[in-house]
Amino acid sequence: MATEQWFVGPLAAGSGETPPLDDLESGAQPCEDPSWSPPPGGPGNPPEAEPEKDVQGQLPQAPTSTLSPERPAPGPRPTPPRLPWDTMFSPITEQLCYLLKKADDFQSYLLYSRDRVQKEQLAKAMPTFLQMCEPYFLYLEAAARSVPPVYGALQELIRKGLLEISQQLTLRLEQLVLMYASFGFVNLEETDPLSISCFFCGRFSISPSYEVSIFRYCAPAAYTASRFPRYLYKKMRWNLETTPEASSREQDSHVDYYFLCYRDTWEDTGKSPANSCPQIQKLWSIGRWVPLGPAEDDLYSWILCPQPPGDYQQLLTIGFEEPSHMLATDLLVQILTGQEGPARPPSAAGPAAWAAQGS
């Protein structure tokens, strides 16, 4: 997958290029350079005694090998110090601070500016700011999740650090968009083409043929415009794009849609939220969009349809607590890969397989 280059400088300061991150594991040495060998006078290489001369005063002939069989091998080389965590993540955290500072500026102008014209200009700039964050999301998600990883076998600690940074920026942008929507400068209605109902927050690959894009809904959105299935609301969307292999007969790529949704269980009983237990109001799950129409060959039905109808193929029930942005994507990856390897495209399985998976 081609990932946009966001950082000009290396991840590690003090070197001309980025060292492989799998060399940062405990006990591993960053390089096999001869300069790491201990000095001749060190404990690993004791100083050699001056060679004795023979009776004629001549030096004996040099041996063919520098080490005799009886001579012990040099001692272990000293383990070089590991790169500090702050040094390795410095370019990434600096960029995060810059984007968070821009978000704070947008919020300050909105709250304290008395010039309505300036506020409207900021509202128009909001989509531009979200697009400005996209390369950063691309870097974080691809470096942490893509197979094969961008920088080799990432340690779990580094992977978690990258994803937590991505989650922190995602939540901040969601908060900012909701604030602008509360002032009436941003529309969150999904059926409006000019709205900011959701925003892009990363892309990664799970195999050479499968690529996942992540989208976050600023506010829960009805699963369909007709509210069918009933009381189902979307919070995240993942686009799974399948690219046919060179040996395949298929020529066009295909996209399947997966959602993080919750269902209002209190609406099934007809009771108001005040009379229901707060812990059982929302049941979270991950499912797949199953299109029900319009017909693909009927252009007019697509134009007249505000939102295509679709069914919800529930794949995983999470529980009554909303999963974090990072955990929800981890769960989706487990569903798609089956913990063993990339599964075949769900669209190729057919409705019978969908029903079997959801049961």
From TrEMBL:
<protein>
    <submittedName>
        <fullName>UPF0575 protein C19orf67 homolog isoform X1</fullName>
    </submittedName>
</protein>
<feature type="region of interest" description="Disordered">
    <location>
        <begin position="1"/>
        <end position="86"/>
    </location>
</feature>
<dbReference type="Pfam" id="PF11771">
    <property type="entry name" value="DUF3314"/>
</dbReference>
<feature type="compositionally biased region" description="Pro residues">
    <location>
        <begin position="36"/>
        <end position="48"/>
    </location>
</feature>
<feature type="region of interest" description="Disordered">
    <location>
        <begin position="339"/>
        <end position="359"/>
    </location>
</feature>
<feature type="compositionally biased region" description="Pro residues">
    <location>
        <begin position="71"/>
        <end position="83"/>
    </location>
</feature>
<feature type="compositionally biased region" description="Low complexity">
    <location>
        <begin position="346"/>
        <end position="359"/>
    </location>
</feature>
<dbReference type="InterPro" id="IPR021748">
    <property type="entry name" value="DUF3314"/>
</dbReference>
<feature type="compositionally biased region" description="Polar residues">
    <location>
        <begin position="58"/>
        <end position="68"/>
    </location>
</feature>
